[in-house]
Amino acid sequence: MEFSAKQIAGVLNGRVEGDAEAKVSDFSKIEEGKPGTLTFLANLKYTHFIYDTQATIALVNEDFVPEKSLPETLTLVRVANAYTALAQLMTMVDRSQAKKPGIHSMAFISSTANVPADSCYIGAFAFIGENVKLGNNVKIYPHAYVGDNASVGDDTILYAGVKIYDNSIIGKRCILHAGAVIGSDGFGFAPEGDKYKKIPQLGNVIVEDDVEIGANTTIDRAVIDSTIIRSGVKLDNLIQIAHNVEVGENTGMAAQVGISGSTKIGRNCMIGGQVGLGGHIKIGDRVNIGAQSGVLSSIEDGESVIGSPPVGVREFFRSSLIFRKLPEMYRTINQLQKEIEELKKIKK
Amino acid sequence: MEFSAKQIAGVLNGRVEGDAEAKVSDFSKIEEGKPGTLTFLANLKYTHFIYDTQATIALVNEDFVPEKSLPETLTLVRVANAYTALAQLMTMVDRSQAKKPGIHSMAFISSTANVPADSCYIGAFAFIGENVKLGNNVKIYPHAYVGDNASVGDDTILYAGVKIYDNSIIGKRCILHAGAVIGSDGFGFAPEGDKYKKIPQLGNVIVEDDVEIGANTTIDRAVIDSTIIRSGVKLDNLIQIAHNVEVGENTGMAAQVGISGSTKIGRNCMIGGQVGLGGHIKIGDRVNIGAQSGVLSSIEDGESVIGSPPVGVREFFRSSLIFRKLPEMYRTINQLQKEIEELKKIKK
Amino acid sequence: MEFSAKQIAGVLNGRVEGDAEAKVSDFSKIEEGKPGTLTFLANLKYTHFIYDTQATIALVNEDFVPEKSLPETLTLVRVANAYTALAQLMTMVDRSQAKKPGIHSMAFISSTANVPADSCYIGAFAFIGENVKLGNNVKIYPHAYVGDNASVGDDTILYAGVKIYDNSIIGKRCILHAGAVIGSDGFGFAPEGDKYKKIPQLGNVIVEDDVEIGANTTIDRAVIDSTIIRSGVKLDNLIQIAHNVEVGENTGMAAQVGISGSTKIGRNCMIGGQVGLGGHIKIGDRVNIGAQSGVLSSIEDGESVIGSPPVGVREFFRSSLIFRKLPEMYRTINQLQKEIEELKKIKK
Fold this sequence. Notes:
Three copies of one chain form a homotrimer. By secondary structure, chain A is α/β, with parallel strands linked by helices. Chain A is 16% helix and 29% strand. In chain A, the strands form six sheets. Chain A has a twelve-stranded mixed sheet. The longest helix of chain A is centred in the last third of the chain and has 22 residues, at 326-347. The termini of chain A are far apart. Chains in contact: A-B, A-C, B-C. The interface between A and C is large, with 63 and 61 residues.
């Protein structure tokens, strides 16, 4: 799709400086600006790149004053805030790529499923089980699987190969990335002599509204009631959420985090990549946990911690720096011991 | 499905106290008991919740004596052991949800595959390759893939999107969760100047009986012979098992564990979440390895270790606690050095 | 497939010693040699196994001199280098198993896609989107998904259930294992009060030639331009590559590594299992990073490091060994303090 400087200025409530008919069909970063693209000056640190960019249009702040001449091929679109305007433009373009409604002839939809055919997209090889309920404008990509009795709220997207086990409940405006698994059996076994007997996992998973779940992330269903992912939670790729966990509103987790069974996490927490949380603990609200931490005890509201076991961030980095001095410290202590023995002897 | 108190007591060899016709269709925990559900008093710590539960039926031990009046809406079913009875009931309900036999018209089954059509369930978009052999009562969910010459034993379940590469052998009564990958190429490359040349991976994966494999877990096939997962092994989600690994009977691994190539793990081990094991080592029988440990050397039978490199559990937590005192220790040592120098001078 | 000793010697430019018509249909390791298989003596440590192997053919070096009599059932094929010859043979056998060209009737191929039908294999339930361009000899296994406008180069293999998002570019001779996800949305959100607003991810992923990507590995697309995986990169299973990352030529990563957004990694690096790299850092060329390291700062060319924060390998293991002596050190320091106080008093 192509847009002219004039069209872009119109949408963004901006002002063209240069060729109003200049056309772009893609974005580029200011340091790599290519012909036919729109670039932007959001971070002033990068200002020097604009003087020889090959980009066709640049979004700049209203108050931008060039310090030398700009390329002749460059048209400016001046807006109140270049960064906000860029985000607005990206969102528009993104929406324009959305799949059109329609049910592919090679999809399978159970006769008992409730699918608003006029607003939903159901791709080839998608599977919609018995009694499934889809909201309006739902998009189910190819190879996605929605098990029996599951429901998916309005405007939610399930990308290719997402698997939703039976009875799961997915909210509105959620985005589930390719290969994510929702509702697999929790890891529950009772010892029986040397062997293990499976404890049936009869609960489900509830994902509330505005949740994003990364590619190949897995969320197990509860033993009896529900594993719950509250509204606004953002989960990156390859995360593991065990059975009976609850993740509070607007909490974000980076990739490869693992949360053990029955742990409750508060709202607006930030959990770094590859963190592991033990089972049956409680993480308060607005807690920050640094990457790769191992957490086996509960954490109070508002704390920022890192490490295994976790300590304050400053404390952790101070101790980590001294970790490499351990051999030297060990030698020094031995030396001191000898010197003291020497002093004692002399004393006597 | 609905069950009456009378039916439940009949099945569990229990005794009704209250309305024998009271009906339930789901389970609930004692602290959240909802009308129309069966709850249970397995842990006496939770006894106080029973006095105002809204659940319709409660499973209790035969010797339970209420300390105050129970809700009028509550019917008791007394059994010898409430916890065992609950597990029995959950297993029954679980089985009742199993898929009915039948081959979906949108499945693909190679003409050379051996599929007992009267007892197997093969879902839409399932793929069964050349010369595949399925046992009786096998369940293959939608989007599962069984490569050429693979075999799957009686009563095994492959959930949605499980991928079994060619020549893999899966035992009886196994459960493979959505997105699990069995038999992918081992990670083997020989340096060739600056580049790497692929070493062909010609072996396979053998999964014995009663194994459970979590969602999106990956098990690579051997270079020449077999990667082996012995009977009764339980693997959680997102685990990586490299080529030529052998995992002994009844060993359990929590989520996100990674096992490097050619490592042998004994029987009845417990391996915590996010543990990493180096290649070509031997872990004995009944070994416990704490979460997030990094193990590069072999471990003897019966040891319990944690850390990187792993040490005894007590030792690890003691050292970890002192880790945060490192800056203080460092300062103290410097101070002591000065004081000793002082003392020496005085001495002279 | 069966091969005679004569055929094998012919291919490998070797020499038969024994029954030229002896036939094998599989490989076996020297310590487990089974009848009907070809074994090999590549590592002299294993020489003693050859004297009672049941294998039918053994590949040995030209200069191998048995120290006692070999089994009567064993035929030798002598070659210049047994290990190289074995690799050559394995590669041949491997190629012989490749899928034949052909488009399955249950595949979906968009009418606007460009698929060389005479040389490509497209399995059942494979999905090829709008304007997709496939090279020659491409193999797309069942349940693989190639989104709109994506391209896949000559001789590349997408195994079962690989998901390629729209606009991704995959090079020649690549191998993508089952469940790998290429081009999922980067994890980008802007805070908006207590909530998060999604930053659209409009870029793509470029995978150059001769890249191997492990099972269930995930690679996110860039915000605006491209996440880039350079030629010859080898990625193991369950790895996470975030948006805007660049991985240099011939770099290898073991399983479960996580790379945060915008980080640039040089060429010919080796990154151990479960390593985590922070965002916006630069790893030089030929860098080795030990397993489970946590890296938050840039690393110069040619360094070998391990730990969190990473230090030299020797330094790390030295400090790790002393880690377990921390409680003892702590006690010693306290003891020394007392003794010095004692000495000072006496002094006075």
